[in-house]
Predict the 3D structure of the following.
Amino acid sequence: MKEFRVKVADYAVARGDATIVTIGLGSCVAIVLHDRAAQVAGLAHVLLPSESMSRDRSNPAKFPSTAVPLLLGEMRKLGARGPLWAKLVGGASMFQKLLANGTNMGERNLDATRIALGAAGVPILAEDVGGDYGRSVYLDVRSGRVLVRSLKRGDLEL
């Protein structure tokens, strides 16, 4: 089985017998998309809620509004035709004491991700979001099964 590792502001798509993994989600959000019939999946590890928050806007995997269309396009190249669904993981508030003006980057990332998925017409099937702890994601491409691991809460299957 192939394993694809997704770093921060990165993505991967695969078909069939593969796993896509991203480690250490805090306020970032993992956007998981899956086409069950085609056994095609994608995962993006988005960093910021909008392009206006970054000087470097060249990486489409960095923001939900560009990561969702990127994933959809790459998945179509591998045979995805739909229907597709999404699962979201992350969006934690990791540094509550540092939030001087009440800005919660995790919540902002989640809001932007939900808007991007809504615009693309992709329903959200499951979420493991919020809280104050990190998570790692293990996506089985064939089945669409998502295993979320955290030190604080253990394993959870979405």
